C-alpha cells in the first residue's frame, strides 16, 4: 500500500525562470542543505530515460537512484526512484498564474515496506516541504533581483 504526499508553492518569477532555477541541479546545494552530490550516470540531464544518483544529506545520509520518466521543460518533470527500501514516483509541474508568478506543484507516491515500518511518510513530507520552501525563496530572490535590474535600466 502506498502513501501520497502533495505540496505546492507560489513563486514570484515566471515559469521560465522557475524552470531555470529548478533545472540547475549544480546550484541546489547553494540554497538548500538537503542534497549533496547529484550525478547524471546515464543519458543527458533532464532528458527522458536519463538516470541520476542523488546523495541526500538530510534527513539522513543516503543515495537514491532515479530514472527520468517525463521531462517537458517549463511544464513538468517526473521520475521513479529507489532508496532504503522505498520506491517512489515524483512529479513536479510549473503553471503560470494569472496574477503573475508560477504555481509549482509536487506530488510523490511512496511504496515499499520501509514506509510502514520506519514512518518515512512524515520524514519525506518534511523533506519535500523544506526543499520546496527553499526553492520558493530562491525563485523569489531571483524575481526581486530581476525587478531591480529592470527598474534601473529604465530612463
Report on the architecture of this protein.
The chain has helices at 15-23, 28-31, 113-117, 120-153; strands at residues 3-11, 35-42, 51-56, 62-72, 76-83, 86-96, 102-111. By secondary structure, it is an alpha+beta fold. The chain has a seven-stranded antiparallel beta sheet with strand order 1-7-6-5-4-3-2. Helix 1 (15-23) crosses helix 4. The chain is globular, with a radius of gyration of 16 Å. The termini are far apart.
Described by strand count, sense and barrel closure, the largest sheet is: 7 strands, antiparallel
Percent range of helical residues: 25-40%
Q: According to CATH, what is the class?
A: Alpha Beta
Q: Based on DSSP secondary structure assignment, what is the total number of beta strands?
A: 7
CATH topology: Alpha-D-Glucose-1,6-Bisphosphate, Chain A, domain 4
Quote the average pLDDT: 86
> What is the number of domains?
1
Order of helices and strands: EHHEEEEEEHH
Identify the overall geometry: globular
How many angstroms does the end-to-end distance come to? 61 Å
Radius of gyration computed on alpha carbons: 16 Å
Give the name of the CATH architecture.
2-Layer Sandwich
The CATH homologous superfamily:
START domain
The number of helices is 4
Uncertain runs with pLDDT below 50, 5 residues or more? none
Kindly estimate the percentage of residues that lie in beta strands according to DSSP: 35-45%
Write out the strand line-up for the largest beta sheet, numbering strands in chain order.
1-7-6-5-4-3-2
Q: Helix- and strand-based class?
A: alpha+beta
Amino acid at each position: 500500500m502506498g502513501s501520497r504526499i502533495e505540496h505546492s508553492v507560489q513563486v514570484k518569477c515566471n515559469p521560465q525562470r522557475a524552470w531555470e532555477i529548478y533545472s540547475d541541479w549544480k546550484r541546489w546545494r547553494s540554497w538548500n542543505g538537503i542534497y549533496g552530490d547529484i550525478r547524471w550516470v546515464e543519458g543527458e540531464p533532464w532528458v527522458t530515460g536519463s538516470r541520476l544518483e542523488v546523495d541526500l544529506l538530510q534527513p539522513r545520509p543516503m543515495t537514491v537512484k532515479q530514472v527520468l520518466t517525463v521531462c517537458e521543460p517549463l511544464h513538468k518533470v517526473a521520475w521513479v526512484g529507489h532508496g532504503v527500501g522505498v520506491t517512489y514516483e515524483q512529479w513536479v509541474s510549473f503553471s503560470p498564474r494569472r496574477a503573475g508568478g508560477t504555481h509549482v506543484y509536487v506530488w510523490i507516491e511512496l511504496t515499499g515496506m520501509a514506509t510502514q515500518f520506519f514512518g518515512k511518510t512524515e520524514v519525506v513530507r518534511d523533506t519535500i516541504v523544506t526543499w520546496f520552501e527553499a526553492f520558493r525563496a530562491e525563485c523569489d530572490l531571483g524575481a526581486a533581483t530581476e525587478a531591480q535590474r529592470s527598474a534601473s535600466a529604465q530612463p
